[in-house]
Write a structure and sequence with these properties.
Layout lengths: L2 E4 L2 H7 L1 H14 L2 E4 L16 H13 L1
Parallel strand pairs: 1-2
Helix pairs in contact: 1-2
Length: 66
Amino acid sequence: MGEFKLFPGCVIQNRYPFLEASAKFVFDKVGIEYSSGEFGCCPNPVGLKFVDTTTWCALAARNLAE
């Protein structure tokens, strides 16, 4: 099946760390291999008005390429 990259994003790690811990727990129980990548922040252009759509798309593309 291969290894999956776990992308918790900025919000999960900072506001909802139990979601990341739960995902890792379940992955371990069912035998899913995972690792963390060198992901960057993916600021939402709706919530953060200082980020334009082109920059947001470039950051999202970088994360997907990881």
